[in-house]
Design a protein that fits this description.
- The chain is α/β, with parallel strands linked by helices and 478 residues long.
- It folds into two domains: 3-213, YjeF N-terminal domain (Rossmann fold, 3-Layer(aba) Sandwich), CATH 3.40.50.10260; 227-477, UDP-N-acetylmuramoyl-L-alanine:D-glutamate ligase (3-Layer(aba) Sandwich), CATH 3.40.1190.20.
- The protein contains 16 helices and 18 strands.
- It has helices at residues 8-20, 26-44, 59-73, 91-98, 134-146, 207-210, 254-266, 281-287, 314-326, 335-342, 356-363, 367-372, 374-385, 420-433, 438-456, 470-477; strands at 3-5, 50-55, 77-82, 104-106, 118-122, 150-153, 175-179, 197-201, 217-220, 243-247, 271-275, 292-293, 303-306, 330-332, 350-352, 388-391, 397-399, 405-408.
- Helix 14 (420-433) packs across helix 15.
- It is elongated, with a radius of gyration of 25 Å.
- It starts with a strand and ends with a helix.
Amino acid sequence: MPVDLYTAAQTRELDRLTIGQGKVSGYALMSSAGHFAFSQIQYHWPDCQNLSVLCGKGNNGGDGYIVAEFARRAGIQVSLFSVCDPLELTGDAYQAYLNCQLEVQVGLSQLPLATADVVVDALLGTGLQGDVKGLYQDWIAQLNDIAKPVLAIDIPSGLCADTGRVLGGAVKADVTTAFIGRKQGMYTGQARNYCGEVRFAGLGVRASVYNQIPVSAQLLIAEVAPVDMLQRAASSYKTHHGHVFVVGGDMGTFGAVVLAAQGAARAGAGLVSVYTQPEQGPYVTMAQPELMLVRDNWQQADVLVIGPGLGQDEFGHSAWQHCLALNKPMVVDADGLNLLAAVSQRRDNWILTPHPGEAARLLGCTTSEVEADRFAAIRKLQQEYGGVVILKGAGSLICGPNQQVSVLGVGNAGMASAGMGDVLAGVCGAMLAQGLELEDAAKMAAWVHSKAADMAAQDGRRGMLASDLLPFVRQLLG
């Protein structure tokens, strides 16, 4: 099953319910969290001899004091810093300070981190509302500048747990430990630059507690792929696996339509036809002989993929209107999305695949507004345009009619190259053509596409091309 994700408020409610049952105290939970965080230091940096711990005013700081005490008992030299007088702490955080047998240096303007082997970020947790300021901002900047290995407790300080947005500045962690509930914002957008490897501990919270809180989103990780949803009988024929029409490729952009068509073919569509400018037809079949060219009889299509290289001139407008009139299942990408933004409409039988810029045009806002809250943006896109939406980017999101958001836990920075979206559009079309329901098709296509990119990246991320994914798409679905 996919991994459940929660908002910060939901995670705090899980914590409250666990304590409220009387099975475990707040301080016991804090101690378990601190112990897990220290275990990650031992695992990732076993040669650490000098540890610096930066503590804030709240419970996140309390976690830091517990980590510092575990490290002291293990014989590690610990330097402990706090933004506030520890006597100002309350509750479990104050108890953690009292139990820590280390001297605390308070409010330093310049942190002496040069000798640290590892630094623990226990400054700010998931309750942060506005931008970081003052000493917090200064310490975060110093920590990022010193280029030391960093373990963040609960979430990198300065990162919004709900959206992944950087709130004025955020710690760039190598490892982040998350407790009780995985925060949805840690897996998408800017957060991918800050969280590093996320390590999770449930701290023994019971299933009965989780059952009381609705899931905010779900993470599709490397081990989760519904490949078995596509079964192929030994006696099957090409017409049993769908006919995809890929529509696009205005003059000079036939490469986009070829990549989309290749994606559909490699993902298992039985037949793939291309509609493009007539002058480019020979180039399409030279690039991939198995592709067919089509000028009429579009009723043969089971699924339409429109947009790659389409353009917005007369050719693009005409093709777009023709596709809409057919009212067949569609995957809308690239200039198809731009044409949709110009004259919006809502349908239940399409998959839309915008990147943040295209999403902004569809919503009539800025790209930065989309990226500030990708979860809100994709839900609004689905509400306004219907069907299923894939909001591309680091940690791509998928949202269907029930407004449940899935987050891709696969993919890498090598995908930041031309043509990746074209291949994804084609794979989406193939999944629909082979009989998957709309949302299942979108999830499976997005997962396979990004997982294929991870496999291709074994030869290096820099210089990875969209066409490099095609053999791995085939392998994953074989």
